Amino acid sequence: MSQELPTRLTCGGCRTQLGEELLACPVCGRLVHAQRLTELAGMAKAAAEGGDPIGAIQMWREALELLPPDSKQTALIARKIAALSNKPIGVPSPRAGSSSRAGKMAAGMTGVALLLWKLKFILVFVLTKGKMLLLGLTKGGTFVTMFLSFAVYWTAWGWAFAAGLVISIYIHEMGHVEALRRYGFKASAPMFIPGLGALIRLKQRPVNAAENARIGLAGPIWGLAAAAAAWGVWMATGKPIWGAMAHVGAWINLFNLVPIWQLDGGRGFAALSRQQGWAIVLVAGIVFFWTGEGMVLLMVLAGVFQAMAKRAEAKGDQPVMVMYAALIVALAALSGVRVPMALG
Ligand SMILES: [Zn+2]
Ligand SMILES: [Zn+2]
Known about the structure:
There is one protein chain. This protein has 13 helices and no strands. The chain has 344 residues and is mainly alpha-helical. The protein has 2 domains: 66 residues, Methane Monooxygenase Hydroxylase, Chain G, domain 1, CATH 1.20.58; 227 residues, no CATH class. Bound molecules: zinc ion (2 copies).
């Protein structure tokens, strides 16, 4: 370390003394990490040619961290990543899980920590923002009844319901984690803090809105799968706790699809053109008249606001729009499940 210090802090081109955080020499423009960048580019090409696109994306993302954000190379590599990562939404690749056992354990532990964090968020949301939303949605009584039924289920099934809820949120989070791996993001512990804006704090950012949207929608896709599975078990066994799980699980994922803040829906909506944004508003509007689901009404209101704020020339991503719309329809249908409370 101490031997490397002098070369690191002196520009290899013009011998200017450089600050530690600099990525390029302010005098001659030479890239501080030029050597490592050449290595990474070589490894990325080898990975791509060896049929390992995820490995290639991983190398390119690492290279991005070493480049000044406004450099030509950054734009070039971002285009390379976008070309490599532009894949169908929500389709796990068989390679995605090929990490070590220790890595998986660590991922699992972070997942649990994350989950507790998310639960805390939901509680805080219910206590603060939830009250505000309720005031704005006094006619959308579904909101109130949702929390009431939530409480009733909890009282009826206690820990079993709580455990089911935690698992369904965990599955949602794992959808994000799987997508992050599939898109070649570093699978280190801080990566596993999705949810509200956590991705923004990462060193490796998605290179464009479409990529961000795919990672965002992956959570609700897996959440939908979990809720549908619970519904299937309910149908098969007639045990109402599974119906309750399907109902609440679907509702939580619907909440995540509201296009505001850094919610998954906000990330999805950001990848849409103005026209596509209005299409989502239309779909949500129809679904609201069909189901009366208060969360979908909130989605309509937020969607109108977001669509109006979009620039006319904003580019759109068709698969993201289709997936977004499908998720709203399917989750609202599952969230409409009403579970008879006859116990025993
Ligand atoms: Zn220099
Ligand atoms: Zn999510």
